[in-house]
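Format notes (please read before filing issues)

Several people have asked whether sequences and structure tokens are stored in separate files. They are not. Every record keeps both together, in the order shown below: the sequence lines, then the token lines. Line labels are part of the format and must not be stripped during preprocessing.
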Amino acid sequence: MVVLGNILKEVEENIVAPEDLVKLKGKLRDICEWIIDSELSSGVLKSDDDANWSIFVQGNMARVLTAGYQIFGEWCYLNEAMEWCDHFLSIQYREGCWFDGYSRRNIYLADAGTASGALFNLYRHVNSKRRKRYLSALERYANFIIKGCTDDPDHMGRGGSSGWVHESGALGVGYYEGKLDLGPFTIATGIVGGLFFSGLYSLTKNQAYKDVASKAARWLLNTAIQEDGQIKEVWKVRPLGVKGPSYAAISYCGEGLVWVHSHIDDEVLKNEIEDKVSPIVQFLLRTQNEDGTWAEPGSPDQQRSPLATLMLNWYYTNVKRDKAVAEAIKRNYNYLLNPDKATKFGVNRLIRVTGFVGLVLAELISPGITLHAEEWSTHELWSACSYLAV
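Then the structure lines:
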């Protein structure tokens, strides 16, 4: 009965046709195998890409493997993700922060916020010893963000900080390009304020974490989202050199708002999110490229754009069953299912793209699978056992 109930629920919620579901699973499995072959757990991906050390890229890949384990039951996917998380914990600074993996010694809050998603997604799959280590690492990072540090963690003379949480709800940058940057940053607010703190609240029920997540979400809703649905990049340095709309900001902040909606037990805030993301959805519908993608083809912004589909899928599943949204999602995944187009886009070629697309495919196959940040419920545990026993 449990399995039948889950099947009916999946059919009701998932807009993907059964024949397409098989193809999406095949594409996701290919990505998982590519990640395994890239030696994720080593901490240095087998790639010529300059981001092969990046913790945010690797964290996304660990999340993809975790979802792959849940969908396919492949133990090697879970084991690789766990080993990467062990590596991630081993490079945490004593102050609680992380170096972002690039050559400029950035302690970039947003990148570590993205990487931490792997710990949240894995939490339900690991034993009590690992859970304790994960939670300790996450709370140390939260303490660093809220209270700051007395001196530069890298001892480069960049100074200390009293914290990066602004009274407005926005979060700051961290240490970037050789300097301490305390100013508000849209993407950090979405990823750290939204994803990280709502995930940590889900595990701890600590009111302080809920407050940071809630204020960050409201800052995004009331300050960053524009009337036309674009998300304003608040930072003195415009990332990626983007001159037009920033689809990276929509991807990152959209996922952050989805996490807040999923984990913060505040119905008023949930309703605000549902209402105020509508302009973003309409913007994405208006500006989707003819081929089903977003952003300028081949641009750095396009590499970070895939999570737009994750947000649309969440909107369709949880907010409004809009036919136009369903059609936009299908255009996007049909593009990704075309082998030549997917390769051109960067799937299993560009490491940033591959991680983002893997998350999207997992969400299309099983909505909500990449948003977990808690232990199994009894219902879910029985469902998982039944599924793996088949």
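For reference, the curators noted about this record: The two ends are 14 Å apart (CA to CA). Residues 18-37 form the longest helix (20 residues).
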